[in-house]
Design a protein that fits this description.
heterodimer, A: alpha/beta, Rossmann fold, nine-stranded mixed β-sheet, two-stranded antiparallel ribbon, 11 strands, globular, B: alpha+beta, Mth169, Chain: A, 2 helices, 3 strands
Chain lengths: 237, 80
Amino acid sequence: MNVGVVVFPGSNCDHDCQHVFRDVLGQHVSMVWHKESSLDGLDAVILPGGFSYGDYLRTGAIARFSPVMQAVKRFAADGGLVLGICNGFQILLEAGLLPGAMLRNKSLHFICRETYVKVENAATPFTNACKPGQVLKIPIAHADGNYYTDPVTLAGLQANAQVIFRYCTADGAVTPGSCPNGSLDNIAGIRNAEGNVLGLMPHPERCAEAMMGNDDGRAIFLSMITSCERKQSVSVR
Amino acid sequence: MKAKIHVTLKQGILDPQGKAIEHALDSLGFKNASNVRVGKYMELDLTETDKAKAEVAVKSMCEKLLANTIIEEYRYELSA
């Protein structure tokens, strides 16, 4: 798979994503500077975590206007896989590629710790390596991860199985107490209606190899690779 | 013209910063303060001299960038 990792000024998880795809999973990775206007030849694009443009104004608000985001919009419209992690998720929301917005964490704290998330939909290009309802342990590190949207949009997300990950307890109970940041409906990750754009707050790239003591995050990247290989074998036929 | 723009979270959306300040005011003895809302204040100069045109421009800036209208509301004043 050819993966592009977008680099904004202030991205800081870009090299972690590169490492996981290239060194751990043996894929081809290109780093894509935010001034680029083409994503030709890529099978998937990652918007990594970090603090693009210093989080000025609002998280993701300025990154959204980078030239590369026009290319990301076209890439997504053509069905390409787009994964936004943490700040990448915030950028996808600001760009309108996913619905809703992020508020400051309910506690006002920057939270950096392990969380458990439940895979609510395992029939997506990002979760096909997981079992439905599987619990993944993935760390979060953010100050603005309190997902908000209006009740009509939320109902739509729920009805269309667009809520992919919910914060939960270690044994998979989705409870108010297991939500670290006040996020609506315990939402940790959502996809678009078409299913090819996913945003999530937890950082799977920080737990994708045994050496890290936890490789639960690997399932997300393996799912993307599987989905891409399936697509290619279909187009060869 | 000069535009003075205020952006705050919409009514009904929890403002944790406002809540924290409210609690701090309360513990300082200001029992008469409630509903604290924290926002952003921006000012900018416009080359526009026509008030109606300036208003269109500022509104568009707010809608496109300065406020996220899913969670925030904005208001502005224009002065010469």
